[in-house]
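Trying the structure run again after the queue cleared.
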Amino acid sequence: MSSIRNFFARLFTWPFFVGVGTGIALTIGGAVFLSFLVMQQFGGGSATVPVGAPSISERAAQSVRGMAPSDWSLRPVSSEADSTTFAEATDSTTVLNLWATWCGPCKAEMPTLQALHDSTGADVSVVLVSREKKKKVRQFLEKKGYSMPAYVASDLPSVFDGDGIPRTYVIGADGRVLYRHVGAADWNADAVHRFLGRLNGDRPPGASS
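Done. Tokens:
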């Protein structure tokens, strides 16, 4: 028994407790840092992320990234219709935003997407697509008063694959994916309107033929 007591007496000394405390502190610190990285990558957190104009230029319109599948299946959020296709959802230049209700940066840029939608008329379609439950998305949009066309999808075409949200794409009326941006941005910025105007033959979005 004395040998056992001597063993524990030697084991539980102040260097032992200091070591245990240091290990716990390092573990907690690592977990906090990892959580921060995940939030930065996948868009968690609050909706207070500042947004600036995206880096969008003439060169972007000449860099085709692929084709948006016309038969991509989407389920409308605001109607009882079971499904539609991407081709049926839009027949004009499209700003496609991939987002989620839990994503802070997504929520931060949402007012600028609504403003773009309000100012472009039939020349540009602003389309939201989430992979969440239809009811959850509808309740979020209704609570915020957003009126942009919104859909949910069970899968994404390979041309829209990527890490992190929000991800936003500009797609020509012919289905060509012309531009991609990851992260929150001001989609009602002058640079965006100029870019969309060039895609529409230098006709300002919303102007009549």
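The chain has two domains: 2-42, 58-199. Worth checking whether this holds up in the mutant runs.
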